[in-house]
Design a protein that fits this description.
Residues 511-734 form the PPM-type phosphatase domain. The protein is of the alpha+beta class. It has 20 helices and 26 strands.
Length: 738
């Protein structure tokens, strides 16, 4: 290994290029113009005198002689345009000037290309005869080469700026260096792995293929040739004679086969100092670099660094965009699946949608199993064909089987993935199963079911697919639990509501009763509307219809308080007014945590008349006005004052007595009916209610007829609009005989 003159033979050359080093590299590449002078005599152009620069330009050595014809001293000039012009200057006596004259000096293999700007001035004697020619010139070889190199370098930078493919840029860079070098070189670029520990083939168009293949993947380490050592040291390493340098002990035979005798390697470093690769210049003969060679290596190593960093940045950008696109795709999939899973509050339907969402997005086949009463039940499957789905649905895993993946996942609560068919019996061969992923559906850490995805053909589950499937399973489990809780809450609310309403309408002497009840919302809360009909000791009957402020458990306790208080005191008190006062006092006496809302109520006692009809004593406490319906005339409201209950200690509650003739009806209803809204948010209202009853109820009607006309009118008005408030109605119709 050698270095530039004056350096220790085993000390590497620093490869960093700061501002000072960059300026030095530019000066080294462009060089300095050298003036040459020679005095030639006679037609043979004998060299009489010349300056040292002249002899250096023509090759030095044994050519440093005078008294010798120029053609003999520099035989390669024979037949060259320079000699033709020189002869012309001697013959004509005229001065000749030329620029950028190109000449190849030296003999193989040490031939070099040179360029000169020159002037031939004839020399005259006293008689005006030409005696010789003075040659005055400037060698511009380095300037010429540097200009060409600069143009090519600019073209490479433009390629990098246009984001040309890295292999194209590196190949072009290597070819430029090989073409413009003043002597034969073979250049190569090796690129570092992401860990910086190995070097891979980048570009080396002039090196033999067997050589490139042999060094592809060499380690970056001390003594691993020129390139491995340069990569390890992060410094330029120069080996001027491969045959004797210990760095090449393991590669000497390979280099000999490739005809390589010297190698100068420069590390390609990123701006942060990390290794990107190496740039090497090989030679067929042992060679020691000059300063211009070192500058050339540094300049193009920096160019290669720029190209590699730009390439890596572009790859990172594309990878980030691909990752972002994949994340968006995953998120879109999860959102679609989550929407489908939560679109139905039936947990079995949710599990079926889960199986469908997985095929083919996550796997060719899917199955969902849940545990019920200590046994596994397959509730959903999905497959490309109906036959495959039927076959998959026919397989039921065993809950306690050690060789069954579903059983193991149910027991452990952990996902299981394998690139083989599941253990245990199953239609795996018929379905072409090649792998599986079994995921638990968890409820507070315990598995209540599993989602099994099955691979076929070349499909495999990678880490990304497993993570996506686990997230989907987590969301599905939550959706199933929500659906189950919803079902349970609806059932609970329904049961509680049933306990607060009549299980059935009783048969009344001399009267027919019919009721309508429609809770608001989805049935999750207990409504605040209520009604009741119950017997009294004297053969009469009590009836009521009311509305509790609010919904839910508090409304339920208030409803129960009103009904049970009325039922308890009605047999003991003289009439409706006393009963309603007792209810009001019970509301005032209730604990704070049982609610403080008011209650509206219509309460009455009815007694059948022997000749037919009903006598009714009625109290209205802040409720909507009851309606009298006879079928012959217009509907009439029962005008009756009365204050809200649960507000004042002694509300004004007068009693109104009515007699219903046979086929006459009394309608009690809550404000949810007249406040029902259509799509334009207009209310149904009292006028529409009266008009519907007038148009739909005739003489001889029944209580059920009234309910049917009322509910149909509200339904047509709302046109499927969600009910905002509970709706309740109670109809009492007098029959012809008691």
């Amino acid at each position: 290994m050698t270095v530039v003159p004056g350096q220790h033979p085993h000390r590497p050359v620093e490869s960093g290029t700061g501002p000072a080093e960059a300026e030095l590299d530019i000066r080294s590449l462009f060089g300095q113009s050298t003036a040459v002078f020679a005095s030639l005599a006679g037609p043979a152009h004998l060299v009489e005198a010349a300056n040292p620069a002249f002899f250096t330009a023509i090759g030095g050595g044994d050519r440093v002689r005078t008294g010798v014809p120029l053609a003999d001293l520099v035989p390669e000039l024979a037949g060259h345009e320079l000699m033709t012009l020189l002869d012309a200057a001697f013959r004509t006596g005229r001065t000749h000037t030329g620029r950028d004259a190109r000449v190849l000096l030296g003999t193989p293999p040490a031939v070099r290309e040179a360029f000169f700007d020159f002037t031939y001035e004839p020399r005259f004697d006293a008689g005006g005869n030409v005696t010789g020619v003075r040659v005055i010139g400037v060698e511009t070889t380095q300037v010429k080469h540097a200009q060409r190199l600069t143009a090519e370098h600019r073209a490479l930078l433009e390629q990098i700026a246009r984001q040309a493919p890295l292999d194209q840029v590196l190949d072009g860079m290597v070819r430029v260096i090989e073409e413009l070098a003043p002597y034969e070189i073979l250049a190569s670029v090796l690129l570092a792995d992401s860990d910086g520990r190995h070097l891979r083939h980048g570009a080396a168009p002039s090196l033999p293929s067997f050589y490139n293949q042999a060094i592809d993947g060499i380690a970056a380490g001390e003594g691993v040739g020129s390139c491995g050592t340069a990569a390890h040291r992060r410094q330029m390493v120069i080996v001027d004679d491969i045959a004797t340098d210990p760095f090449w002990d393991d590669f000497r035979e390979l280099a000999d086969r490739a005809g390589l005798a010297a190698c100068w390697s420069t590390p390609i470093l990123a701006r942060d100092g990390s290794l990107l690769g190496t740039f090497a210049m090989y030679h067929r003969v042992p060679r020691t670099p000059q300063e211009s060679d070192l500058a050339l290596s540094r300049v193009f190593a920096d160019t290669a660094a720029l190209a590699v960093e730009r390439h890596q940045a572009e790859r990172a950008r594309l990878a980030a965009e691909a990752k972002e696109a994949a994340a968006r795709k995953d998120l879109a999939f999860l959102l679609r699946a989550s929407t489908a899973l939560s679109s139905d509050l039936d947990h079995t339907q949710t599990l079926r949608r889960l199986a469908t969402a997985c095929v083919p997005a996550l796997a060719p086949l899917s199955a969902v199993d849940i545990v019920e009463a200590g046994r596994v039940r397959r509730v959903a499957t999905a497959a490309p064909t109906r036959d495959e789905e039927t076959l998959l649905a026919s397989h039921i895993p065993l809950y306690d089987a050690d060789d069954d993946a579903v059983a193991r996942v149910l027991a452990s609560g952990l996902s299981e993935v394998a690139r083989r068919t599941p253990t245990g019996p199953g239609p795996w061969h018929d379905l072409g199963v090649t792998g599986y992923l079994c995921l638990p559906l968890l409820d507070r850490g315990r598995a209540f079911g599993t989602l099994t995805l099955l691979s076929t053909g070349e499909h495999v589950f990678d880490g990304h697919a497993v993570a996506l499937a686990e997230e989907l399973a987590r969301r599905a489990a939550l959706a199933v639990l929500n659906a189950r809780q919803y079902t349970q809450r609806v059932a609970l609310a329904r049961d509680l509501q049933a306990g607060l309403l009549l299980p059935r309408v009783p048969e009344l002497p001399g009267a027919e009763a019919a009721v309508h009840y429609h809770p608001a919302g989805e049935g999750l809360d207990i409504g605040g509307d209520f009604y009741d009909v119950f017997p009294l000791r004297d053969g009469g009957w009590a009836f009521m219809l009311g509305d509790v402020c609010g919904r839910g458990a508090i409304a339920a306790t208030t409803t129960a308080l009103v009904r049970h208080t009325a039922r308890a005191v009605a047999p003991l008190l003289p009439g409706p007014e006393a009963v309603v006062h007792a209810v009001n006092q019970a509301l005032l006496d209730r604990p704070q945590d049982h609610g403080t809302g008011f209650v509206t109520l219509v309460y009455g006692h009815l007694t059948p008349v022997d000749s037919g009809g009903l006598d009714i004593d009625l109290v209205r406490a802040g409720h909507t006005l009851p309606l009298l319906i006879d079928g012959a005339g217009p509907v009439r409201p029962v005008e009756l004052d009365g204050a809200l209950l649960g507000i004042a200690a002694d509300p004004h509650l007068p009693t109104r007595r009515l007699r219903l003739a046979p086929s006459e009806s009394l309608l009690l209803y809550t404000d949810g009916i007249i406040e029902a809204r259509d799509g334009g948010r207009d209310q149904f209202g009292e006028e529409r209610l009266a008009a519907a009853l007038d148009a739909g109820i005739g003489t001889g009607h029944t209580a059920r007829d009234v309910i049917a006309v009322l509910t149909e009118a509200v339904r047509e008005f709302t046109l499927g609009t969600e009910v905002d408030d509970d709706q309740a109605a109670l109809v009492l119709t007098a029959t012809p005989t008691a």
